[in-house]
User: Which sequence fits this backbone?
DNA sequence: CACTTGACCTGTCCGC
DNA sequence: TGCGGACAGGTCAAGT
């Protein structure tokens, strides 16, 4: 479920803590989770220093100083959690929060770390750095992966090459967005938003949310959209993603950021997603849930046309 | 060619 | 209580 705002939140967290760290050890315990073997990955990255943590759509890219990049896709349940060497979270064991959070959040606990004892049974890859800190790649459903690729060839990677533009790129205009929609297509606008070659980073949550903000029914065909609806949709995509990044992303169930914190977008700002049967925040009518493009789809039949 | 559906996984929730 | 089945969603292969 991590979509662009969730991956961006993780990226910002990892950039703060990973850059400059040197890989001392790496262990892959689930071979589906890495495109190469544990031994090959170790041979490729042990001794290398992290230089950059970037993102392309939902893909997180860890750049190393040995001209290798780790493409990391979390798919549905992937997590990347960093744990410093000397911090014992021990939440379950002690039943109490570490003092450092008390000061960080002024004594309250607006958000609770969901870091349990790591590694746990969903841990697929463990990166150990030379200072004793760890990065855990957890993935309950084993759909995510880590793929080492020469940094100079990242753009040539089949998956990367298939991605459309970043919706939050300042250079990406409403005209660009309109031009990327399949002209005259009878596909539903929702399926086109989920297609990563249209615009990269939108998943089920932000497809529903942006269509609500733009007041467009998810089942509408692309061909039926007016110019002003396309412009509204463009603006809606950008605004709900920016809001979600500000909220630390959306947590349905599995998503946590690099510190194990949940995202608050769904609680604070979501309008339709996961709100079936609840009153629309604009008109009060019950939010409907159907299936569009094979996905659970939420909308307000009163507000969206 | 355009588009939809199923497979990949595992945990959770629902009904019987 | 336990069991079976539906469901969740990102991407790709296979099907219509």
Assistant:
């Amino acid at each position: 479920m991590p979509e662009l705002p969730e991956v961006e939140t993780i990226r910002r967290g990892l950039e703060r803590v990973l850059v400059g760290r040197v890989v001392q050890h790496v262990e892959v315990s689930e071979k589906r989770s890495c495109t190469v073997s544990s031994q090959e990955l170790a041979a490729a990255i042990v001794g290398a220093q992290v230089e950059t943590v970037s993102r392309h759509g939902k893909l997180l890219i860890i750049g190393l100083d040995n001209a290798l990049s780790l493409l990391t896709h979390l798919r549905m349940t992937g997590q990347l959690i960093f744990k410093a060497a000397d911090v014992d979270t021990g939440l379950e064991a002690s039943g109490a929060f570490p003092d450092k959070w008390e000061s960080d959040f002024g004594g309250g606990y607006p958000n609770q770390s969901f870091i349990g004892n790591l590694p746990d049974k969903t841990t697929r890859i463990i990166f150990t750095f030379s200072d004793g800190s760890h990065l855990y790649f957890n993935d309950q459903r084993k759909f995510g992966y880590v793929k080492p690729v020469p940094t100079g060839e990242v753009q040539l990677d089949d998956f990367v090459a298939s991605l459309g533009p970043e919706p939050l790129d300042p250079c990406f205009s409403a005209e660009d967005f309109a031009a990327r929609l399949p002209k005259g297509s009878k596909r539903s606008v929702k399926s086109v938003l989920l297609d990563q070659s249209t615009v990269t980073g939108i998943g089920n949550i932000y497809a529903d949310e942006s269509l609500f903000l733009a007041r467009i029914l998810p089942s509408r065909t692309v061909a039926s959209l007016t110019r002003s609806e396309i412009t509204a949709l463009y603006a809606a995509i950008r605004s709900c993603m920016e809001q979600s990044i500000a909220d630390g992303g959306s947590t349905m169930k599995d998503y946590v950021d690099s510190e194990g914190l949940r995202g608050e977008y769904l609680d604070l700002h979501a309008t339709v997603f996961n709100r079936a049967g609840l009153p629309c925040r604009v008109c009060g009518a019950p939010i409907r849930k159907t299936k569009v493009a094979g996905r659970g789809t939420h909308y307000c039949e009163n507000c969206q046309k």
